[in-house]
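Narrative summary of target 7.
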Amino acid sequence: MKKHAEKFDKRHLEMSSFVSFLMGFTQAVTIYIMSSYFKEAAGTENVGVFYALSYLVVLYILLNFHQVVRKIGKSNAYYFAVIAKIIIVTVLSIINPSLPGIFLLMLYIIAGAIEWLALDIIIESFSADAVSGRVRGAHLTILNAGFLFGPFVSTYLLDKIGFQSVFIFSLIFNCFILIFALIAFRKVNHRFEKKMGVRDLLRKSMARPNVMRVYYISFILEFFFALMIIYTPIYLNDLGFSWKEIGYIFTAMLVPFVILQYPVGFLADKKLGEKELLIFSVIIMGISTIAVYFIESKTVAVWAIALFATRIGAAMIEILRDSYFYKRIDGRDVDMIDFFRTAMPTAYIAATILSSILLFIMPSIKLAFILTGVIVLSALYPAIKLADNKCEKELEKC
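Modeled conformation, tokenized:
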């Protein structure tokens, strides 16, 4: 594995963590009601096309994002995305679900993806390989602690008032994010010096087989998130659950992201490395997702437990893929981070197109669970083929 120089910056990581908490909460407020907004505005359950178009734009931006960072710096790119989100939700808060609203919500998805990528690059600037699992685990735990309460808040507001109240709430917290980010990142506007085109970036990435393997695992995780985020709220609503009940289910569902990720990151750093844990996680996530298809119950507790089980594997994969990848690059590899994060838009595009075709042929949202579970299990082969990163226990023996 290639050696590279990195500097651990605890102070900036702590400030980044607070911003991450606010971002996680704010994203969770909107992410689980987006598909329902698209459904109401467009008059159809087959809302995948809106996600596909949004993530096509995101994919193009991510492949060229290192050029943006090279010109304006990391923190300026981050500020731009947050300000764009503030403008978008301001307009969404004063209009009803409509075609212009669909367009604005698609722009919100795009700005949100840029915001997360910019934060990712900033955090990598403060991290170091020896503690990568713990840094990423702590970051994701704090982020998901914020994420945990978002679905409950948004579904409560949607049930009691409507979509506009959700966007007003999101506007307030996006303003808080901007204020704290201006304080936290004002002296962190590192620039990326290398100039690299998309072809060179793809060639560089393809030449690193372990990066490509963990990229595929990341793609599968994002594919899982895409289908579950888009279709689970619609399916539960169709089963007769109220938005308040869906909020309870989703809050319980997200608990593994808060309780598992730091311990798993610690374990990967200290005892096992990422490979064995990734294999285990893929199996859990694949089987538990397929099992959801066979649930006939209409009780909150059963669905909370079932979706909780699917997120055990997802939470583990999320931290392990990040820990593995970031041990193989450093903060100067902005181009590689750009490429790695294209897994999300690529997965959303693939998931929405594939699911839209299947729903057109066999119009049952429930089929999305079978489709997702089978595709998740395809990540087993690249997980098995990964070259394992040595943990501290193994390094001590060398």
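The two ends are 15 Å apart (CA to CA).
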